[in-house]
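Thread: quick sanity check before group meeting

JM: Hey all, I'm pulling together slides for Thursday and realized we never actually wrote out the predicted structure for the chain we discussed last week. Dropping the sequence here so it's in one place. If anyone has concerns about the input, flag it before I start.
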Amino acid sequence: MTMPDATDNKNLEGGGFRARVQKVGGYLAGMIMPNIAAFIAWGLITALFIPDGWLPNATLEALVAPILFFLLPILIGYTGGRMVHGQRGAVVGAIATMGVIVPSAETVLQPQVENGTGVPMFLGAMIMGPLAALIIKLIDEAIQDKVPSGFEMLIDNFSAGIVGALAAIGGVYGIGPVVENLIVWLGNGVETLVNNNLLPLASIFVEPAKVLFLNNAINHGVLSPLGAVEASEAGKSILFMVESNPGPGLGILLAYMFFGPRSMRPTAPGAIIIHFLGGIHEIYFPYVLMKPVLILAAIAGGAAGLLTGTILDAGLVGPASPGSIFAYLTVAPRGGYFPVLAAVVVATAVSFAVASLLMGFGRGTKDEKVHRPEDGVLIGS
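JM (edit): ok, ran it. Output follows.
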């Protein structure tokens, strides 16, 4: 559903909850969407060249981790900084983003996640980029017209360098531990639901975590170890399907293709191919961030898929990595294709229905408001 113009709905004005949510979604989308081509490039390289990909290639596979752990977060931090304070904010934001990347650097070439390490710091970049840019912006405003003539360049460079360095250090000791604690909290929540036979409710924790790019942490750090224990005893485990089910993301992308903002509809088919066939779920996360209420569609789809899988006794013999439909069929147990496919189909249908409802089934022709990084203003309706 395209959001009404602020002049048509007073709920979108001022400091109301709905207005705040829309503004947050606009800022997040403003950091992600200008870099969507980089996400697509990473998705294509990953889907093609990893060991489980279409064209396995060890040399080209070496591109995957550095792009995921370094390039994409830095691009996000750079763009977020530019939205706040132009080119100076962009540079400082990129420097600050390195501070939240470093805690994961030791495992960057071995992205199996243990105890919260090795997490792509997209969320940290979304925080550090704009925050560091805001700090340098405030400093620039404070010293404006107070710098002696001839020292402008010196002061500008050193002030930006000092702020960037301090922000990077703060990122190492601040945002990284916060994200790690968030992962531990989410993991404990999922494990509690599993132990109490309330697995469909795990989507309440898992789907928001995925959209915040913590999908690998949840899958490899929590669900895969638990699933491996269950599979060793029963020959299969539905826990392998909790995070990797492509249905919720497929439903949201289909809703965007038919009912989303008109400027976004042409991008959805390509994202569907990368997501559903390639198994690169990260490709649909920015679409949810642009309209945060769609997380409800992901939760509903994930829960419906897990409920269906539970009723039909679905399960996989191992992790579906990447989470494509091909990987699903590869690790489905012999004779267990119908329950697995049913869980994917139901998750897709429910997610599509809820997302379409939240989008108003395409009523209106105006686009969502998205912050443009060039000048920080809103574009669209």
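AS: nice. The CA atoms of residues 17 and 288 lie 18 Å apart. The beta strands are 370-371, 378-379.
JM: adding both to the slides.
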